Here is the input.
Amino acid sequence: MSKLLEVHGLSVRYGSVQAVREASIAVGVGEVVAVLGANGAGKSSLLKGIMGLVPAAGGVRLDGAAAERWPPHRRLQGGAVLVPEGVASL
Here is the structure.
């Protein structure tokens, strides 16, 4: 199965605080994946790291292309989207 998103060993730090340590996730075509955890568990930091909104170490692939060095706008063009909760109402 083709993977739309692959994350390997993603780590995010805020100064001396380790928010995410070597997280890995893969999302294939037609799959829905949820990230669950308590407040402060690193969910938002993981997603911001995937989007390139915070400095992160590790690998990010979008539709098979290495994206970890792409700026956020390029990751958006590559198909990654982050919609913060409570921002949009329809």
